[in-house]
Specification:
The chain is an alpha/beta fold and 370 residues long. The protein has helices at 34-42, 55-68, 88-100, 115-127, 141-147, 185-202, 204-212, 214-218, 222-242, 257-266, 274-291, 297-309, 322-330, 359-367; strands spanning 11-15, 22-27, 47-52, 74-79, 108-113, 133-138, 152-157, 160-167, 172-176, 342-347, 350-354. α10 (257-266) packs across α11, α11 runs antiparallel to α12 (297-309) and α13 crosses α14 (359-367). The protein binds nicotinamide-adenine-dinucleotide and zinc ion.
Length: 370
C-alpha cells in the first residue's frame, strides 16, 4: 500500500516497490499542492530545486511559492537546457551549490523539468552524501509518461549514453499537465511516441483511446491529457513493479528502441529527437513482426497510422545506411551473445521477445524505412 496525500484533487497511481513504493500524483493545475505533498512524503527538511534554463523561468516561482507555503526553504539550481547537461562537469557544479547550501540527508532534491533534469537531479540525489531524498516534477510529456517513473537515473559519458548512473527511486512523482501548454510541439510528439509504445505492448483500449482522442491530445485538452498520463503511468508502474532492475519483463519497454537507438547514433547529424527515432524503430519492428508472421498487416498499419496522426516520422527519407545501422544495433548493450533480443508486437496490446530473426529479415526491415 502506498500512503497518499489526504484531500488531493487529482488522480494517483501507485508504484508498488515494497518499502520503496511511492505515488504518482497527476492532475491539471495541481502545482499549488506540491508543497503539501512534499511535506507529506519527505518531511520538513529543506529543498534543492533543480531545473533548466527553459523551465525555471516558467514554473520555478510557482514551485517555490508552494514550498514556502509549507515553510520549506528552497535553494534553486539551474542547469543549461538540453542533453549536454547530463554530464559529470554539470554534476560537479551542482554538487558545489549543494555544499554551499550545506545540504543534508534530511533535505530533498526536487527535479523540475524534462527527462534531462530528471536524470541529472536523480543522479545527484542518489550520490550526494550517499543519497538525498528526491521527488520528480516532470514538465515534458516524455518525462511524465516515461522517464520520471521507475528510478533509472544517470548521465552520459563520452563513451556511451546513460552509462553512469544508479537505480534510485523518488519519494513521489508530481505531474501537473497544465505545464504541457508551453511544451514545444516537437517535444509533445516525443512523449506521444512513448505513449504509443506503452499502448502497443500492453493495452489495446489505451491504443483505441489515443486513436479516438488524437485531436484533443494535440490541442492539449487538459482532461484528456490527465487521462493519457494516468494510463501511461499505470502501464509503466506495473512493468517496473514486476521487474525493477530490468532483468526480464522490463525489457518490453525497449519496443522500438533497438532500431531507434541505432538511428540516434548513426544518424546523429539528422537531428532526430529520441521519440522520433523510437517512432521509426516501432515502424520497423512492426514490419519485422508482420514479415515474421507474428502480426496481422492491419495492426502494423494502425500503428503507423497513429504515429503519422501524431506527426511523428515513419520514414527516414533519403539514403538508409543499412550496414551502419545494423552494425550499431549489434553493438547495443542489450545484445547478448551476438543475438538481438527484439520486442515485437503480436497484436495491439501484446508483444513478445524474439531472438531468432535472421540478419536478412532485420536488414529488410531497416531498409523499408527508406
Ligand atoms: N530515466 C529514464 O528512465 C529515462 C527514460 C526515457 C528517457 N530518459 C532521458 O530523458 C531525456 C529526454 O527527456 P525529454 O524529452 O523530456 O528532454 P528534455 O528534458 O531535454 O526536455 C525537452 C525540452 O523541452 C523543454 N521543456 C520541458 N518541459 C517544458 C515545458 N513544460 N514548457 C516548455 N519547455 C519545456 C526542456 O527545457 C527541453 O528544452 C533523455 O536524456 C533520455 O535519456 C530517461
Ligand atoms: Zn524511450
Amino acid at each position: 500500500m502506498v500512503d497518499t496525500l489526504v484531500g488531493f484533487r487529482g488522480q494517483t497511481v501507485p508504484v508498488e516497490l515494497g518499502e520503496r513504493s511511492y505515488p504518482i500524483y497527476i492532475g491539471g493545475d495541481i502545482l499549488p499542492d506540491l508543497g503539501r505533498a512534499l511535506a507529506c512524503h519527505c518531511g520538513q527538511g529543506r529543498a534543492v530545486l533543480i531545473t533548466d534554463a527553459n523551465v525555471g523561468p516558467l514554473y520555478a516561482s510557482a514551485v517555490v511559492d508552494s514550498l514556502t507555503g509549507v515553510d520549506i526553504k528552497t535553494l534553486m539550481v539551474t542547469a543549461p537546457a538540453g542533453e549536454s547537461s547530463k554530464r559529470l562537469a554539470v554534476v560537479e557544479t551542482v554538487y558545489e551549490q549543494l555544499f554551499d547550501f550545506a545540504a543534508e540527508r534530511s533535505d530533498t532534491v526536487v527535479a523540475l523539468g524534462g527527462g534531462v533534469v530528471g536524470d541529472l537531479a536523480g543522479f545527484v540525489a542518489a550520490t550526494f552524501k550517499r543519497g538525498l531524498k528526491y521527488v520528480q516534477v516532470p514538465t515534458s510529456l516524455l518525462a511524465m509518461v516515461d522517464s520520471s517513473i521507475g528510478g533509472k537515473t544517470g548521465i552520459n559519458h563520452p563513451r556511451g549514453k546513460n552509462m553512469i548512473g544508479a537505480f534510485y527511486q523518488p519519494r513521489m512523482v508530481f505531474a501537473d499537465t497544465a505545464v504541457l501548454r508551453t511544451l514545444p510541439d516537437r517535444e509533445l510528439g516525443c512523449g506521444l511516441a512513448e505513449s504509443v509504445k506503452h499502448a502497443v505492448i500492453q493495452d489495446n483500449e489505451f491504443f483505441a483511446m489515443l486513436e479516438e482522442h488524437a485531436g484533443a491530445i494535440l490541442s492539449r485538452q487538459q482532461d484528456v491529457l490527465v487521462d493519457l498520463v494516468v494510463r501511461n503511468c499505470r502501464i509503466k508502474a506495473e512493468v517496473v513493479a514486476t521487474d525493477e532492475r530490468e532483468s526480464g519483463l522490463r525489457g518490453i519497454l525497449n519496443f522500438g528502441h533497438t532500431i531507434g537507438h541505432a538511428i540516434e547514433t548513426v544518424l546523429a547529424g539528422r537531428d532526430h529527437h529520441h521519440g522520433e527515432a523510437v517512432a521509426l524503430g516501432m515502424v520497423a519492428a512492426a514490419r519485422l513482426a508482420r514479415q515474421h508472421g507474428l502480426l496481422r498487416p492491419e495492426y502494423a498499419e494502425r500503428i503507423e497510422s497513429l504515429l503519422r496522426t501524431f506527426r511523428l516520422p515513419t520514414a527516414l527519407g533519403g539514403d538508409v545506411p543499412v550496414d551502419k545501422l545494423y552494425t550499431a544495433m549489434m553493438q547495443d548493450k542489450k545484445v547478448k551473445a551476438g543475438r538481438i533480443n527484439f520486442v515485437l508486437p503480436t497484436s495491439i496490446g501484446s508483444c513478445c521477445f524474439v531472438n531468432d530473426l535472421t540478419e536478412a529479415e532485420i536488414r529488410a526491415a531497416i531498409l523499408s524505412l527508406q
